[in-house]
Amino acid sequence: AREMERATESSGAGEDKVMDVRFWSEHHANELQLVAFSVASSVLMIAEAARAFVSSGGIDVCVSVVSSPNDRVRSSCLRTCIAVCSPALVAAEDGSHSLVLLEPDPAVAFVQSGFVPYLISLAQRQLSLVQRDALTLLALLCKVDAPAPGEVQAQGEDVRVSGREALVAAGREDEQRSGGVYALLCLLNDSVGGEVTTLAAVIDCLWSAVSPTFGHVIVRELEGEDGSVMRETVSPALDSFIGNNGPELLLWLLQEGDPLLRGQLVGCLSDMMRCTQVRDVVGGWLSPQGEQSALQVVLQCWREDELAREAPGLEGDVDEDRKSVV
């Protein structure tokens, strides 16, 4: 607004001459966008500001600007999307604050706008400037549920899909070797040996997309050998994860990957083992090196972490308060 005010000059005929924004340089426009997104991200932690952002068309702006060819602008836009989809602060009458999710959830609008396939393509570009932001937002969108059974959608509203459904369907042409889950597993495999923060972001995204704890799931009934009926919670994303050797990849990464990832990997695997199919895979897995079982690998990681915890630090002291990450 200040730039436009300074560009307004009074002419001799008494007419105003306003600088046409079409003649702004691309660099100037990008810098203004960076400032705008930076300010938005800093205030969206407050619930009232987040509601005002959504009601003013902020989501539509993000959807249009995220395709900018400038990676700095794209990354700043993604961080604004993350901020508006995250819990926001609400002040109570007694002066205390609590975190709440906005209603309606802005993440739903992003999923319905077709954001998920685009985020997968950004994550696959392996540009550190936007890759982790894309993965972080994708993890949030994967927690968007489809309407619950019996829930009535507003008249004229498009059929709502969950974040997981959008992820599974992204770029899918066959039953297994395509889709968002397969793309994330390929990215995880290709990122081994790279930055730990990138690996952690991919694992977190898979955890949100695949774990039975999050999102809309399907209850499937299985008949046991003795004729009893067992009920199992599964999802298409989980089926794709199992069919593309996801549990085996996480177990291999637990044994061969960076020790800093061990706590996250064990938590992710233990959560997914609520599904009997994952339990069967983990129970029958043997490591390529040494043919250790999954349990033996976990125990080995625990022993190594305990030894590291008991080792003297830089000043010769043992940190007895440090807990094992496994």
Description of the molecule:
There is one protein chain. It is globular, with a radius of gyration of 24 Å. The termini are far apart. The protein is mostly helical. The chain has a two-stranded antiparallel ribbon. Strands 3-4 form a two-stranded antiparallel ribbon. It has 16 helices and six strands. The longest helix has 18 residues, at 26-43. Strand 3 and strand 4 form a beta hairpin.
- Taking the alpha carbons of the first and last residues, their distance comes to 53 Å
* Shape verdict: globular
For the largest beta-sheet, the strand count, sense and barrel status come to:
2 strands, antiparallel
User: What class would the helix/strand composition place it in?
Assistant: mainly alpha
Q: What share of residues are in beta strands? A: 5-15%
Q: Taking strands numbered 1, 2, ... along the chain, how are they ordered across the largest sheet?
A: 1-2
Helix count equals: 16
Average of per-residue pLDDT values = 78
Radius of gyration (Å):
24 Å
Helix content: 40-55%
User: Spans of 5+ residues with little confidence (pLDDT < 50)?
Assistant: 4-15, 148-157
Order of helices and strands: HEEHHHHEEHHHHHHEEHHHHH
Work out the number of β strands. Answer: 6
Looking at this protein, list some descriptive labels.
326 residues; mainly alpha; two-stranded antiparallel ribbon; globular
